[in-house]
Amino acid sequence: MPHSPPSKTLAARATELARRLDMSVLVLLAALAFDLVFVTDAALDNAGPRFIDLGLFPGIFTMAACALFARKRAAVAGVFGALALMFFTFFIRYLNIPAYSSVLANLSITEVVAGIEMVYFLARRARPGVAFAVISALVLGALTAVFGREFDSRLYASSIVQSLLFGFLLLAAAVVTGVVGRPRRERDPAAVERLRNMHRFTELVRGQWPLIGMLSIGVLIEFGYTYESGSRGFPLLACSIGAAAVTALSPRRPRDAILVVAGILLLSALATPFLHPSHSYQLLGGMPPTQIVAAFGVVVNVVRAVPLARAWPRIVVLSGVVAVGSVLNFSQYRTGRLLTDPMTLGMLATVAVLLLGIAIAIGLYLRSRDSERAQVVKSAVTDAQTSERMALARELHDVVAHHVTGIVVQAQAARMMGEKNPELAFEAMGRIENAGVEALAAMRRLVRSMRGDAQAGSGEFNEQATTDLAADLRRLVDAGNHGVPTKLELNLPPDLPHEVGRSALRLVQESLTNVGKHASDATEAVALAEVVGGELHLRVTDNGTGQTHRPAGGSGGYGLVGMRERVALLHGRLSAGREPNGGWRVEAWLPLEANGETDG
């Protein structure tokens, strides 16, 4: 009875969904979720007309849809995105809907992310001329939104410079990333290496998509802080971006990455009191939000990759840096004094210890899961190797040993009869030659299978087993390699399952080989193959007296073992033993629906 697969955990389902979705989709959905919360909160507050902010949603959802459609038709999506920016600019201006700023003035986070993704897909997939034209249209649409949605004299001061600078950096990054990822036709070593590196990067991103998503959101939020606080926030933003990048790459070298992040956080903490950022640049516990997420993530990655006994000194260093940043900057940039209040220090220490414990717990859980997954993979590889070895062993024993046994039997007969009748010896030599050629061909097929050119138990070996079991059995008996005259009794339909017929051929072949090996005085063997009651019934008997001899070269003792394995794979039954009047009997019953059961 087939076993139902184990139910997947929520984490496993989330990871599988993330693997199916592109990382850009996850970032877009995160930005959309942020805008939904932010705009809804603004629509329900008491500042200005109630619910008027909801008028931003049509433009936000339209740009998100264009970004999703850009995965299929980048040029068409880009044109619609540019038109949407211009149309909703007039819509917002006409209805006096208050626009809010994120990375760029008067543009929501979703619109910025959607525009970046459309530029990326255009640079990666569209023809250069088409990409240039559509990207230019998107830039024009973005400039129209920046200058036209909400007239504010502050835009003509330092804020406009920041918007243009951020916009240029984002545009350049999207274009460069898209051009680098463009598929290339050449297959030179450099191109192959680039593709390999791109694959490694993709696997790295997919392996820690929640962390990268949180870091991306944090960087986007700090872009907004920097836009509002002026140029004093640039150094903090640069430190946050650096910490986020190192954390995202930390799985490759986690022990070094945690020290680099600690250094970046220390630089940021020491520079903050001299920068005097405005209150618009929000610090959580004296640190920018992205740096907190980076510290949390790098602890998770180092605990996941390194035993805790070797990771704790580096974790202590990072914790000390976080403590320094909190003490220096929790109230410094507001009051100009260091944090000395015991109650506040205790609260910050409690929160920090709690976050550190959660990070270590997550890292230990992921480490345990990785170990379990590696053990499962190792076990699966071992089982596959064992199965392959057993299949090769059966083919070697059933096919090659059959021909070699025939050579030995014919050689023994030629030696005994050569002096009395040289003509019989000459005929035996011809049969020995044929058996040797067949043995050599079978050995070559086996070697090809072991080298990966054919799968063991199929492919090349199937050349000996056709879909007509009756014809295969007649050809086997006519070859006479086992050296004992054999009578066939067949009652077979023409539509036997191929795997059943192939296994039946091997069972009869091995049984006749054993007759030639062990039944020294047998003068006749009988092979029966018939279908009875939905089963293939096989029986091979000989008329020996039961006195056996040790065959030349010895007996490996694997003949019956291999037959039992073949029968067990098809959920059949096998019996073997001496007949009451002497001789040996091998009998098997193979269900004709065995393939369907094993697949289940």
UniProtKB/TrEMBL annotation:
Gene Ontology MF term list: kinase activity
Group of enzyme by EC: transferase
Signal transduction histidine kinase subgroup 3 dimerisation and phosphoacceptor domain mapped to chain residues: 388-453
Family matches, as InterPro entries: HATPase_C_sf, HATPase_dom, Sensor_HK_TwoCompSys, Sig_transdc_His_kin_sub3_dim/P
Stored CDD domains: HATPase_UhpB-NarQ-NarX-like
Pfam family, one: HATPase_c
Origin: domain of life: Bacteria
Keyword Endoplasmic reticulum: no
Record keywords, A-Z: ATP-binding, Kinase, Membrane, Nucleotide-binding, Phosphoprotein, Transferase, Transmembrane, Transmembrane helix, Two-component regulatory system
UniProt-listed Enzyme Commission number(s): 2.7.13.3
Domain Histidine kinase/HSP90-like ATPase: 505-593
Transmembrane segments: 21-39, 51-70, 77-97, 103-123, 130-148, 160-180, 209-227, 233-250, 257-275, 281-303, 315-333, 345-366
Catalytic activity as recorded in UniProt: ATP + protein L-histidine = ADP + protein N-phospho-L-histidine
PANTHER family the record matches: NITRATE/NITRITE SENSOR PROTEIN NARX-RELATED, NITRATE_NITRITE SENSOR PROTEIN NARQ
Record protein name field: histidine kinase
